[in-house]
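Comment thread on ticket #2218

A.B. wrote:
> Attaching the input chain for the structure job we discussed in standup.
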Amino acid sequence: MDHQFVKQGNQVFHLLENKLDTYEYSESGLEFVSSMELDDDFEYLSGDSSGMLYLSPGIGDVIGVKDGKKALQTTVDGDLNMHPSGEWGISFWVNSDTQKIANQGGNLTAEPWILTGLNKDEERKGLFSMIDDVQITNSHIMVAGSMAVEDEGTKIVVYDYDGNQLLKLGGEDISSPDKLGSITGMAETENGFVAADGNMREIQFWAKDGTHVGAISTEDIFGVSYPWLEDMQLLDDGSLLIMLTQERDDGSANELMFFRLTGF
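C.D. wrote:
> Ran it. Output below, let me know if you need it in another format.
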């Protein structure tokens, strides 16, 4: 449950704790290129269009890696999801205050974003008591996590860049087809919104107006038995690259698998 990846151009970067692996990506699969050992363990990975990778340890300072070398040391913490431009991002960590991160020539600074006081009922701003994931799309900011209202469970809230709430995604009832568990990846496509749900082993789809379109079981579409959906990224061609892990039947190892999903 600790794997992260980012695809940039024809390369895929895979993060697991203190190791950052580089793979060459093609339609026929992934070919290992190199491995970079890091000084510390990191748990979250995002990137920007310049080729910079932002590695977050959660509790601790974010660093930047580019061209196989450490290229940035910051004083901001949390799990940082960076806008593709690299000019700004949103950092989060469990029930800590979210922060909006500004990048000024490689100097990253932080200020409170709209979701603060998550673990204090009397101070809370926003709907969340805990955050699972954040994804900045070309048009919106998607936030997934546990609602402060206990019986609402997990939801995804879509905001505009100014922090105005636009949509709330996810079923209210346990029998709802889009009842959410633990969100491990999100994307905004040409037709709507997509989320990978690790707990439910499903990929969920909503239209642009928030109407639930449907859910796909990973067993049905990928032929896997009991995987964990680790991470997901929208590619330039509109397809989704999805990373899963699953223990082999004989218990000898955990397998890391990538699937490219199209046709939605």
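A.B. wrote:
> Thanks. Noting for the ticket: The mean pLDDT is 96.
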